[in-house]
Predict the structure of DNA 3'-5' helicase.
Amino acid sequence: MGGAKKRRPEEAEEGDPAVKRLRVTIRRPKEDAARDSSHLDEWSDEEGERTSYSFLDLALKPDHRNRPVWVTPDRRVFLESFSPLYRQAYDFLIAIAEPVSRPQCVHEYMLTAHSLYAAVSIGLDADTIVKVLGKLSKVSVSKSLADFVHVTTQNCGKLKLVIQDNKFLLESPYPEVLREIVKDEVIAKAVKDKSLLARILGKGEGAEAAGGGGQEAGAAADFIVKKDVGKGKVADEITAIDLEGDEIEEIFDERGGGKAAERGGGFTHAIEILPSMIEHVKQRCLPGSGSLNYPILEEYDFQNDKKNPDLLMELKPTAKLRSYQQKSLSKMFSNGRARSGVIVLPCGAGKSLTGVAAASRVKKSIICLCLNSVSVDQWRHQFLLWTNLQEHQVTKFTAENKQMFATDSGVLVTTYSMLTHEGRRSEEASRILREMQSKEWGLMLLDEVHVVPAETFRKVIAIVKSHCKLGLTATLVREDNLIDHLNFLIGPKLYEANWLDLVSQGYLANVQCAEVWCEMTKEFFAEYLKKDNRRRRELLYVMNPIKFMTCQFLIEYHEQHRRDKVIVFSDNIFALREYAMKLRRPFIYGATAHNERTRILHHFKHSSEVNTIFISRVGDNSIDIPEANVIIQIASHAGARRQEAQRLGRILRPKQSMAIGSGNTGEFNAFFYSLVSKDTQEMFYSTKRQQFLIDQGYAFKVVTGLLDNMDKAEYDRLSYSKREDQIDLLSRILTVGEADQGDEVLATDKEQQIQEKNLLSAARRNVSSLAGLSGARGMTYMEYQTGTQPKQLSEAQKRRNKINPYKERHHLFKFRKKYQR
């Protein structure tokens, strides 16, 4: 470029490759776009919302080939996964940034306020974050990005809520911070010792009048002073990155000081808070306008908790934690206390063992919340499998089994709905619920924690009093954009594993993902295009005969030739029944009894006679079927990204052909098929659903014409291969009642209903009929003419019929009106 004059984008020639390569257009708030950047060119539209960033002046460092990261001024970070320093850089970036997309070669991350809040929670500070970014980056870290990190983390980590000796302590290593927040009316009302509060405020005012020299000493003298437990070793471990000959560029906040200058000599100061005011204090300290902007970190000093009885719980020698499981737990227990937060691990990566290991570390009473009764049984089995607890110490609280451990401490496994149910309860259930509410739990395990922000389930946080909360999930995504609420409902994200890394290490199965396009038959597509069949369109493309035959072909191929275990998913209950009954396979949906579910799953796992099961959306979450290695999806819930990932997770457990840690990924040993009717709305939904998995690095292979090369004899053997069978199926579909046309609706689907139009309340009103109420749903009364064709009447006969209207009547009724007169 040399001394050439720099051109604005609108002045550049059309198709200029340099501009295409080095200019990125994104949407940013107006105030962010106005930030000063000495090396950044910005152009805004009239509204100031659209900003183009040109990276022409970003100079590469001399040793940029040895550095694995690109740090751009718009807070995005790109990581080269083929770099020798990838592992160390990934551990650091996952602690400070949100992953956006992680394909095979280059990962993209974004620095956000929530991600920096999570970084501070494990002991990182702003200066360390900026230093390590500068150490890893191929280009210099911009001043605007450094300012953003400092401003965002300025107040994070300065306040902690600790339960010690059954006292709620609000502590901070900065006494001036405590003195500042107690001036607030809400915080002052929450302080338990009012005389201590008066002395703190009085000495603070006296110190200010004296000139401020004794302000900190006067305020700190009356606080509860303890030795600081420190930040632990995790922050030092993830920032220990060695680059030979590296000179770290230090970028400090203009205000200077740094963390070492503010800390109070290795001691922390605390004030006691009333238990009834805890929620008000947390809400008041949240960041945002009108709040104090001092987000609180929750920690549990379980080792010094003498009031709550200990649970003699140890892991068995057979319980071997993998490296990523140990790393996630180290983020939780790095300073000897238990931090509340969320751990994100892929399906099949051992979330249950991670939760059990966390419980064995706390050694207090544990309450575990699940989605359904099947998950309750599985979690109870995991506690008995991996620990030395006896059966009477691990109890269940479900609709079928209402038990509470008789000892002082134990493990209780229940469901979200059992705690949040607002209807009438039995006397036994009410007694157990009161006992749960009056007890102080050491740890609350929340399985599938992404459901907690739902309006119904978020109540469990207030119902159960727990010192520490650990959320576990594989898909930290929601369609209603409420996933950020977990930051104050549970805590920050502590750790998130990379899916493809675990596949390459042999911890997860190597899955081949395929989208199979199925042509619509002429008759079905004609009905699909009719305006009157708008409500039946979903059922028409789900029950497409070509899709039915494709599903049957895949099932028989994997059963007979590969001896695989197949799960077929369908959200549409009508399609689920039709497919399963036509192909003579067992099926499970919401109305299936718990005992029958357990029996079907048991035969599927251990019997060679049951190799395929059909299951509705009840199988999306918390069902452990490690034997399954093939998924066929025939009907899904619109464009729900999380559902796609959850269903893929049913087959992610490592298979027998894989040696753990061997890294042998050359052969696919699991298969995920998504059957899509071509030229329908299902194709749009399918593209949207795959986005989450594509961001995790998975690639979908498109398959067309799967049945084209079949022999005629084999093709004719498939169901609905004959046109008359297809017409008969179509006629049954067109007579199905509206109540049977839609998808199954579960209690956990509230956040996904945000995609549907005109859904303004939790109440659902469906158009029904007397036939549906009487049990005759789906049946239609039709008249048929029998015998010969009616004879043609002559004109004379027609005239006689007009004169005698009773001539063509039955002889029993011919003269009825005559006699009535």
